[in-house]
Amino acid sequence: MHTITISETDEGQRLDRYLKKFLSSAPLSLIYKICRKDAKVNGQRRQVDYMMQAGDELTLYLTDDRIGELSRRKKRARSKRQFGIIYEDDRILVVSKPFGLLTHGDSVEKKDTLVNQVSGYLLDKGFSARTFTPSPVNRLDRNTTGIVVFGKDPKAIRDFSAMIRHGGDVDKYYLTLAAGEITETLDLRGRMVKDEATNTVRVLPEDSDEGRFTHTVARPVKVFTLRAGEAFTLTEVLLVTGRPHQIRADLAAAGHPVIGDRKYGDAAANRYAERKFSLPAQFLHASRLHVNKGHESLDYLAGMDFESPLPENLAAIVAALEGGA
Hints:
By secondary structure, the protein is an alpha+beta fold. The protein has helices at 15-22, 28-37, 64-70, 114-124, 154-165, 246-253, 267-277, 312-322, and strands spanning 2-5, 39-41, 57-60, 84-88, 92-97, 135-136, 145-151, 170-179, 186-195, 200-204, 212-225, 231-239, 284-291, 305-307.
């Protein structure tokens, strides 16, 4: 018999998912069997979807040898750390994601991801939450760089996710290079419909009956006039809502597509940027995150700013444009 007292770090997880992490070598069929026959919470049988609470006593009617056998973890190859650290405390880790790195794995790449790199970093630092893997509360596309926030426990993840969902509690800013000359702030409101077949979105008018509401605010930082007579505008974007491809689609619909964007961009502008600056993909960087209000366990974050400078290749493009490229 083995008894575990659920800590605040581990609360908020389903019983079956908690056990799957604790007994990492056990197949799901065995986990469900243990839930039915060999586990009690506070002396009572619970359904597999019972949400664990801090202070609960989980009793497993298994021998220590059997628990050791089922909790034996396979050694995993570590990926070389590519991310930068912006801020870290006991509850959250704020990192800067580089170009080309997936936040989560996909059908092609499962090992070398930001999540796995962060997990390896925290394990090396002695992070010992046996039944919990730190998880991101936001994600960026492979070719978008900048700020990603990780929660180190389920409570921190829930609270930061709620802050992002609750409009106005967290402001997310991006820097992008847009085609054309933007001379005043653009307040872009509409509705967005996703085409699953092509993995693209369409921007519709705000009064449309279709799609989900979107709100993007784009403020020009500096206009660069090119020798060819055209212009690029370095633009700071406030992402008020957070839909997939929102910034790229909204700016394209407004006539100022993101430079380097292969899905929504301008082909001629992209060819110029690729030839002149070797820009391989969209110029889009999650540059700043400001917390207006923190929730519950993260109330201490109120008023804090997290910033990620442009990566070297994007900063070099801006410098070249300032030099008259």
